[in-house]
Write a structure and sequence with these properties.
The chain is an all-beta fold. The chain has one domain: Beta-galactosidase, Chain A, domain 5. Strands 8-9-12-13-24-20-19-16-17 form a 9-stranded antiparallel β-sheet. The protein has a 5-stranded antiparallel β-sheet with strand order 5-15-22-21-18, covered by helices on one side. Strands 1-2-3-4 form a 4-stranded antiparallel β-sheet, with no helix packed on it. A hairpin with a 2-residue loop joins strand 2 and strand 3. The longest helix has 7 residues. It is globular. The mean pLDDT is 96. It comes from Arenibacter echinorum. Its cofactor is Ca(2+). Pfam families: Aldose_epim. Keywords: Calcium.
């Protein structure tokens, strides 16, 4: 367990996963073992969304890649690169076309191994700021490598009147529940606020959109995404790709409590 601390803020990270973020003793992160989801955060890379209807195949400029839901990055282990009292950096390295064991096989997938036809380095850093937590993702890869990126944190809920506020709308928790597994899209948005017993603001750079998902009233996933995958059929998922420019692409999320 990696622990970061600054004033009244405490961050807990286990094998690269954010398992705790508290300020003034208030825990904001969904806890493993609680109803809703077995994880507390993960990344969706190099694709977002399901692929089962496309026979688990995604089109790339270098041919067809075998990908399961939300990509292969989550099947790889993070390595701790460095740590201070307020910042920790983790990394995953991938060599082109290396087979990665698919944890969904055989119960939920026909594909035992996943692969991607490009080399990449994926870095995830956590840094406690004076009033908030910054999570930054750096993708280093071959110039022109296609990718999507989604960050998938889950937040613990306390109130019976939870809502999500954006610049032009107010979304109830029931609206998110009603959408179900597809997740509710919040497009062209880089800032929103989770309204619970207190407020938690989430500001992003590089993503451009959010998805909101939950199936229980005690947890909500607020997911910054570069592309909403349900906007197209699974066979056309490649239409949502970004590309690595100048060998590096950077995305960030700032979580700021407003208690």
């Amino acid at each position: 367990m990696v622990k970061l601390k600054l004033h009244n803020q405490i961050v807990k990270i286990y094998e690269g996963e954010l398992v705790g973020y508290s300020a003034d003793g208030h825990e904001y992160i969904h806890q493993k073992g609680s109803p809703g989801w077995r994880n507390s955060d993960t990344e969706m890379f190099p694709i977002i969304g399901p692929t089962n209807e496309a026979n688990f195949r995604v089109t790339t400029p270098r041919g067809t890649a075998v990908q399961d839901q939300h990509g292969l990055l989550r099947e790889m282990a993070y390595q701790l690169v460095s740590q201070t009292n307020t910042k920790a950096i983790f990394r995953k390295l991938y060599v082109s076309s290396t087979p990665i064991t698919n944890s969904k096989y055989p119960s939920k997938s026909t594909e035992e191994y996943l692969s991607w036809p490009y080399n990449f380095e994926f870095t995830k850093s956590y840094e406690i700021l004076e009033n908030g937590l910054k999570i930054q993702f750096t993708i280093t890869g071959e110039e022109g490598m296609p990718f999507m990126l989604g960050y998938h944190p889950a937040f613990k809920l306390y109130s019976e009147n939870v809502s999500i506020r954006t610049a032009d709308r107010n979304i109830s928790l029931q609206e998110v529940l009603d959408v179900g597994s597809r997740a509710l899209a919040v497009m062209d948005c880089n800032f929103l606020t989770l309204v619970d017993v207190g407020e938690l603001s989430i500001k992003t750079e590089g993503f451009g959109n959010f998805m909101l998902w939950t199936e229980v009233p005690n947890m909500l996933c607020i997911e910054p995404i570069s592309f909403y995958p349900y906007a197209v059929s699974q066979e056309k998922l490649h239409s949502g790709f970004h590309t690595v420019n100048m060998s590096e692409s950077i995305f960030s999320v700032i979580i700021q409590p407003n208690i």
